[in-house]
Structure formats: C-alpha cells, structure tokens
Specification:
The complex is a heterodimer of chains A (about 160) and B (about 800). Chain A is of the alpha+beta class and about 160 residues long. Chain A contains 5 helices and 5 strands; from the N terminus they run ββαβββαααα. Chain B contains 18 helices and 29 strands. The chains are: A alpha+beta (about 160), B alpha+beta (about 800). At the A-B interface, helix 2, helix 3 and helix 5 of A face helix 1 and helix 16 of B.
Chain lengths: ~160, ~800
C-alpha cells in the first residue's frame, strides 16, 4: 500500500518550497532528494557526525535526526543559502583562505555550525571555538585549519561590519 | 613575469564549489535513479538454507530482488583477487552475493531494487533468510590455533606465509646474530583494528544507454580506470562501451582503492537489466560491517644489540588478521614487514608473517597500510633498547641511522611493488636534530621534574619512519591547449580531497608559463584519460604530477617549434610568459599560445575569426612540406607517462608530550611536533593539511579507535556513537617543520605525502605514555581504562 503523503511548506534559503513527504522522511532526504539541495550531506544518519547540520530558524540542527513533517512552516538555511549571491560569506571565505577543508564532505555542516556560532559569539576564544565545533566530525583536516578558519571568519566579519 | 607557482601555498581551486554546496558527490547524482539496498548477513559464519522473498513482493515500489542464483556468467564467480602473490597460496575472495555460505556479519546476500531507498529497505526487512549457524572464528591467535575453519579448504586458516631475511655483513642470519649478541630482548606487541572511515561511504550509480549499448558508472572510488576494466570484464562488455567516473569523493583513506566491490558490479548489472538508472549509497552501518578494516596484528619480537644500542639482529614474527577474504592480496603485511627497518641500518633482519582468516570484515589498506604497525614495532624496540641500556632514546636511534652519504641504500628486501627496496635519498640525522629542537627534547627532563613537583605526570615520546611512496607501475597525463588559450589537463587517477585540481594545475602552469586561472584539471574520469592505476600509497603527486610535467614539456616543445615558424625565430630563443610565446628579451616579437594552438591544427574550415589563420588559403605554410609533417599530430596537445624504476622514500620523525592524570588515567596530548621530508613541495599548504589530517587519524588509532568484535563475530561498536573518532577537542595542534631532500628518481624531485602523518603516531604516543608512567606500553590503542589496568597490574 502506498504510504500516506503529507504536504509541507518550508522556507528554504529564503524561498518558499512545498513538498509531499511521507511521515518518516528525514529532513536531510527531503532537502537533498525532494528539493534538490544536495549540498547538505549525510555521513552517519545517527546524529553523530554533523555533516547534515542545517540552520532551523537560525539554530543548527541535525537534519538526519529531524522528520521533515515536523518542521512544516519553518525557515531553513542550508549551505546553498550561506553566500550573498555570488559572494561567499565570511565563513566560507575563511575556510578557503585557511585550507579548512579537504574532501569537503563534512564542510557544509561545519559552515552552518560556525555561521551560527559566530552570530552568537562574534569573537570566540580558542576554547569556545573548540567547544563550538566539537559536535562535527572531520576525517581529513585534523581540525587545525578549521579552528584557524573560525578565528579568521570572526576577523573578516569584524572588518566588514 | 609569470608568478612562481611550484612550491607556493596557492589557495585551492576546488574550494568555491565545495564551500557553496555545488560539489557533486555520488549520492548527489541521479535524482531519478532507482535505489538499491542489501540484505546482509547478521551472522559471522553460517550456511544459507533458504531465502524467502514472498513477503517482500507486496512492497509498493519494489522493482526487483536478486540473489546469487540470479547472477549470470562471470558475475556468479568470486570477485577478483587483485594482487596475486606466490606466498598467498590460499587466496580467497567473496561472491558478489553470498553463495551458500556467509563468512562475516555484513556480507551481502540479497540485492533489492525499488523506487526509493526507504522502500528498498522495507523490502529487505521482509526477506527471510534461513541460516544454519556455524562456529565463527574470531581473533587472530584463536584462528591460528583453531580447528574451526573460515574456508573449508584453507588448513589452519593460513592464507599466506612469507619469510624475508637479510643476512648480516658476515653472512649470518638474524637468529644466529641475536644468539651471540651482547644484549637481547624478546617481547610481544599488539595492534588492534581500525578503519579508514571516510565521512562519505562508498556508492555506485549506473546508467545504461540501450540505444548506444553503453554503460556509464559513477563510483566513489580511488580507481576509476580499474573499476572500469573490472565492470567490463564481469559484465562481458567491450571496454570502449564502459565509462567510469569518480565524482567528488568524500574521503577515501584506502578503503576505496579496494575494488570492484560487490555493489560496483551488481548496480551496473541491474541498471542494464532494468533499463533504468540505479544507485546505491552505503549507509554508515553498512560501511562498518561490509567494507574493510585494517591494522590488527600480533607481533613477536626478538632483538640483539650491542652496548651502544646498535641493532645487530632483529627477528619479527607477525600474525596478520586478514578477515574473511583476501581480495587485495597480502599488500598490508608485506608493507609492515618491509617498512619495519625504517631509517635504520639493521645488522641482520628476519621477518615472517602469517596471514590468517577470521570471520570478520576483510582487511585491505587503510592510510599507512601496514606501516603504523611496522613503526610501532621498530620504535617500541628502540625504546626498549634505550631503557635496557639506560641510554637516551634519541641516542639509540641516532646510533642506528643510515647516514646521508649511504644513499641509495638497499635494505635487501622486496617491496610491495615487487621491486627491490632501495631508499633514494634522505637525511635522518638532520631530521632528528630538527625534531629535538622543535619539541625541546633536551630540556624536557627539567620540565618533567618540575611537573612532578606539582603532582603532574608528563612524558615525551618519539617515532621515526620511512615511507615508500609513489609506487608504480605508472601514471599518465594529457595536456591540451585550445584555441581560446585555455589549458586542459587530465590524468586518470582520482581525488578524494588531496587538492589535485590545484597542485596539478600549479605544475602545468609552471611548466607551460601560463596563468593558473587558465588551467583546468580533470581526474578520475575514464572519458578523459583511460590509462591509470589509482590513488593510494602516497603516489598521486609523484606519479601524475611527474606525468603531467612531462606531458607539458612535450606541449611546450611543440608550441615553441610552431611559434618559431610564425615568428621566424630560433625555438631556442623563445620563452613563454603569461601564456605568450616571445623572443627572450624582446617582448614585442610574440605570439599568444591561443594563436599557436590555432596554427597547430591546419584547417579547411574556419569556425571563428582566429581560426581563419589556420585555413588553407591563409598563406604562411610551405608548399614543400605536408600540412601535418611526418611524426607530428594536429593540435597543441601532448600525452606522456611517468613510470619509475622503483618507489621513492619519504621520511619523517614525530615527537609528542603527553600528560596522564594520576587519578583518572586520562591521557592528554600537550604538544605534537612533526619533521617531515617529502622532497620538493608543490604546495606547502596542502602538504601541511595532509600531515594534520594524518596525525588526527593517528591519534584516533593511538587513543580511541578499535573495532570490538565479540566471540560470535558481532561488531559491537558499528556506529559513530561507539566507534570513537577524534573531534576537534581530541586532536592536538600540530607543529611542523619541513626538510627537503629531493628525490633523484623523478623530474620534479618530489616524494609522496598523503599517508605520512598517520604512520608513527601510535609509536610516538606509546613512547610518551611509557615515559610518563614508567610502565611498558605494548599495545595500541590505549584508553584511560587500559592505562588504569596497567597501573594496577604494575603496582
């Protein structure tokens, strides 16, 4: 028997999007496969790696632990929505400048996490940066340049504000 | 002036795409593809009595269900044994879908194809497989002694047995030398299982074009060319009708050099059969139980040495846990046994390994590929010698170093490429001097005493390694300059985050004298380059980097020849700067490479204004010579290959300072220092990134990561909740210094850097903990509870 579908409306990266999803559809799958926003990645599907992190009403959440139907009507920002048109956000530019990514698979999750972190705390200490990104796994970089990138992003944001 | 590009920390060209969500990883492809999912064995060892799919047939959206019995011809045969070796007398590989028997938890038994992954998994859950349980063989020592067999026709569970021995200068074997040595020690070491664990698992997407009878396969692989040959062979397709593309790959670290995975042949087969795109994306649990692990070894060491700490004889016997199958041959234990001597001149060396089957996930290379175990063994040995003699640990190492004037240095062994293991260059004493300075080795005892007065325990450790990189047989590069002045570079090997698009572009831009922005690089796409081996063994920069440089030199030579004709100059007087060929010292007598590209291809038909210059009535060509001269080809392009006589040997030394909590036994790394020598650096920023990442994986292997199997062969920690990989909070800041001893073996003088960071970390951390605690550390990883147990046992 076909599954019952639910119509949901999401504001994704500032655009109103509609989707018909079964109750069990994960937000990560909805974003990736129903809305075609494949920048959000899925690394473990059990909420540990943080690759799937998106901003839900501005707060970082694990989209792989969220059912799409539960966020009906909410605002979501994915990695595709971080840049200002063609100009990358300070966080994105800092990651490029500091070599804060290698394979790039965990990167969208880090970018969303760090974007929220710096909005809350525009000038974090070393400890606060480590704490802030300690829910995201990266298997390539050893984190050193990610930490550097977070500080650099804070610097760019301060310069540009 | 063209900006200097080789050796500069150029920002990566792949980043804008990856930072804005425009990367194309495997699961991002084929939005309309059908989804495959697998029923996998829940048992470590069992016979399959029956497979009942009837309950699954009612699942909405189900398209097909396949078991081994459905597989045709060569697909029904066992998967290839990729690297045969005479010592691998009992090599065994799995069937794409289990035939009658399963040998580890996670082995694929049934493939389901459905409209989407949710529905495919619904169907999998309704398929009933009736198993007759057999006693599983778990643990390498148990397997070596067990009467129970993983494969009925492999006695003693021994897949391979290999001895290599290098006699002393006076012709005596290691055993004899050790017997007569002034000092001897014997001990045992244990290294546990870990795994590559890239954040993107494996995945395959296949598209069959029935009208064209051609197949395109995308795979998250480290070798698209070899997957292509395997797919063509397994499916009986002509090679030119099969294309394999590695899209953006979310990390590999070795596990994706294994191929063809069952899914890499099954998914394309299903796509052909169904006439629909089919995709399979591995989930994390599948990755834990059905891909590959590495590291697990038990080592028995006997060493004989003199009063100065010089190793006169070394004998190592290794039990290597190979898991249920040996598709990648015995590369891992070969590397362990041959890289074990490291930077040292060992008087006489005997190494013996047995590769043992167990009912666990198969073992194939993971970054470092047997070297972390080798270095753990050699460096633990050095520390034990130092402790026994009461010498400084660095002094014992220095006493054994191969000296800079001894290169090329023949270790007398046969390496993983089947060729003699001969070190090409290096400077180990200088490396040690730099490391001691970087970490403050000589001042440490004072710091340690000071810490002790505060009730703190700190210790310092060291580890040295030599890494054979850039193994053959070859790689190739193709370079084409088109009439718009753009430079298109392709090479067959793949990328998984190493920044090849950037470093290869740096090489091409530097060789050709063109701006970096004009160069684009494609890797891992058999449509662009069909001949390649793959990305593993820290070989991409060495192999493809040099191949691309050689191809560029061909193109450059051709460009200068054509430009010389056009400028009526001698090619030897010409230079290329910023994409313009000009007479040296005379910038006005010049012709852009774009125009040279036009002139390189004699035309009948013009396609734009620039192209008019190459048409037949444009004049300028000699009537005495054919438009395309003998031995020449139209177009400004070149292809070349780099095939080295043998590997080039990078090296490095790491040191760490750790603190252990006197109460909780928590282990914290206070400082981590790396001196690294990979010859000439193409892009120091990328090399440092590789080292950071390697060290982080090494820290995981030293302190956190282990695959925990119970006696039933169940992997107890098959999730990121329980298999602990380091977060930012667990990885120390890495302090690096570079030494550059260029390789004399290749035109660019480079050595590989990809695996280096991970190799000595377990040895270094063990050395530091031992120094802090005064308790011998003989196994890795070590957790706080392990250390707590060691303290209790020692007291």
């Amino acid at each position: 028997m076909p599954e019952q579908a639910h119509e949901i409306t999401l504001v994704v990266n500032g655009t109103l999007r509609r989707a018909e999803v079964p109750g069990r559809r994960l937000l990560s799958d909805c974003l990736r496969h129903d809305l075609g926003l494949t920048g959000t990645h899925v690394g473990c599907e059990h909420g540990v790696c943080g690759c799937c992190t998106v901003l839900l009403d501005g707060e970082p959440v694990r989209s792989c632990l969220t059912f799409a139907v539960t966020v009906d009507g909410r605002e979501i920002t994915t990695v595709e929505g971080l840049a200002d048109g063609e100009r990358m956000s300070p966080v994105q530019r800092a990651f490029a400048e500091c070599h804060g990514l290698q394979c790039g698979f965990c990167t969208p999750g880090f970018l969303c996490t760090v974007t929220a972190l710096l909005r809350e705390n525009p000038a974090p200490t070393e400890e606060e940066v480590l704490e802030g990104i300690s829910g995201n796994l990266c298997r390539c970089t050893g984190y050193q340049n990610i930490v550097k990138a977070v500080h650099r992003a804070a610097e760019i944001m301060a310069e540009e504000s | 002036m063209t900006t200097k590009l080789f050796g500069e920390p150029v920002q990566r060209r792949e980043d804008p795409r990856l930072l804005t969500g425009r990367g194309r990883y495997l699961d991002d492809l084929g939005p309309d593809a059908l989804a495959a999912a697998f029923v996998r064995s829940p048992h470590a060892h069992a016979l399959i009595r029956d497979i009942d799919v009837s309950a699954a047939l009612d699942v909405d959206g189900l398209v097909a269900i396949y078991t081994w019995e459905d597989l045709p011809d060569r697909l029904a045969e066992p998967l290839p044994l990729l690297i045969p070796h005479p010592a691998l007398t009992h090599g065994r590989t799995a069937y794409p879908l289990a035939r009658e028997r399963v040998r580890h938890v996670g082995e694929p038994v049934v493939m389901v194809v459905a409209r989407d992954r949710y529905l495919a998994e619904d169907a999998c859950a309704l398929i009933r497989v009736d198993y007759e349980l057999l006693k599983p063989v778990v643990g390498v020592e148990e397997a070596a002694q067990s009467a129970q067999l993983v494969h009925d026709d492999v006695p003693g569970n021994v897949g391979a047995h290999l001895v290599q021995e290098v006699a002393s200068a006076d012709g005596r074997g290691a055993r004899e030398v050790i017997e007569s040595a002034p000092h001897t020690l014997a001990f045992r070491l244990d290294v546990e299982r870990s795994a590559s664990m890239p954040l993107e698992g494996r995945g395959v997407h296949a598209r069959w074009d029935a009208d064209d009878s051609s197949l395109r396969v995308y795979s998250s692989t480290q070798t698209s060319t070899s997957v292509r040959m395997a797919v063509a062979a397994k499916l009986g397709l002509p090679l030119p009708k099969v294309e394999v593309v590695a899209p953006d790959v979310g990390g590999g670290f070795g596990v994706k050099i294994m191929h063809p995975w069952p899914e890499e042949v099954l998914v394309p087969w299903a796509a052909m059969l169904l006439g629909r795109e089919v995709k399979w994306t591995e989930d994390r649990r599948e990755h834990f139980v059905s891909s590959a692990h590495e590291r697990a070894q038990v080592q028995f060491v006997r060493v004989g040495f003199d009063g100065g700490g010089r190793v006169l004889g070394l004998e190592v016997t290794i039990l290597h846990d190979h898991g249920a199958y040996t598709p990648y041959g015995i590369i891992v234990p070969i590397i362990t046994s041959t890289q074990l001597p490291g930077p040292y001149r060992i008087g006489s060396y005997r190494v013996e390994f047995s590769s043992i089957y167990t009912n666990t996930v198969q073992v194939t290379p993971y970054r470092g590929a047997g070297r972390p175990q080798a270095v753990f063994c050699m460096e633990r040995t050095m520390d034990r010698i130092a402790a026994h003699l009461g010498l400084d640990r660095t002094a014992v190492r220095a006493a054994n170093f191969i000296q800079p004037d001894e290169f090329p240095y023949d270790q007398g062994l046969i390496f993983q490429d089947g060729r003699p293991l001969i070190y090409d260059s290096g400077d180990y004493p200088e490396s040690l001097r730099m490391l001691k300075e970087l970490i403050g080795w000589d001042a440490f005892p004072e710091a340690k005493a000071e810490a002790a007065r505060e009730g703190r325990r700190i210790g310092i450790g060291i580890g040295c390694y030599v890494e054979g990189t850039g193994v053959g047989p070859y790689e190739g590069g193709h370079v084409q300059i088109t009439s718009d002045g753009r430079v298109h570079v392709s090479t067959g090997l793949t990328s998984q985050g190493q920044g090849h698009e950037t470093s290869f572009a740096q090489i091409a831009a530097a060789e050709l004298g063109v701006p970096l922005e004009r160069v684009s690089v494609v890797t891992g796409d058999t449509r662009r380059f069909g001949y390649a081996v793959g990305t593993f063994a820290s070989r991409a920069a060495v192999m493809s980097g040099n191949a691309i440089a050689l191809a560029c030199r061909k193109v450059r030579e051709k460009a200068l020849r054509i430009a010389a004709d056009a400028l009526e100059a001698d090619p030897r007087d010409l230079e290329i700067t910023d994409g313009v060929v000009h007479v040296a010292g005379s910038p006005h007598a010049s012709v852009p490479l774009a125009t040279v590209a036009v002139l390189s291809n004699p035309l009948r038909y013009a396609f734009d204004e620039e192209a008019v210059r190459a048409t037949q009535f444009a004049g300028g060509s000699s009537f005495d010579r054919p438009p395309v001269e003998e031995g020449q080809e139209p177009g400004l392009e070149g292809r070349d290959y780099y095939s080295p006589i043998r590997s080039t040997f990078a090296s490095g030394m790491h040191a760490a300072i750790v603190e252990t909590d006197p109460l909780t036994a928590e282990i914290r790394i206070l400082r981590y220092a790396v001196v690294h020598d990979c010859g000439n650096l193409i892009n120091p920023m990328i090399v440092e990134g590789q080292i950071h990442g390697g060290v982080a994986q090494g820290v995981g292997g030293a302190l956190y990561e282990r695959m925990v199997y119970d006696s039933h062969g169940q992997l107890l920690n098959a999730s990121f909740m329980d298999f602990l990989m380091p977060y930012a909070t667990e990885v120390p800041r890495v302090e690096t210094a570079h030494l550059q001893t260029p390789s004399p073996l290749n035109p660019l003088g480079i050595k590989g850097a990809g695996e280096a960071g991970v190799i000595p970390v377990s040895a270094v951390i063990a050395s530091a903990i031992e120094d802090a605690e005064g308790i011998p550390i003989d196994r890795m990883p070590i957790s706080p509870s392990d250390l707590f147990g060691l303290r209790r046992a020692a007291s």
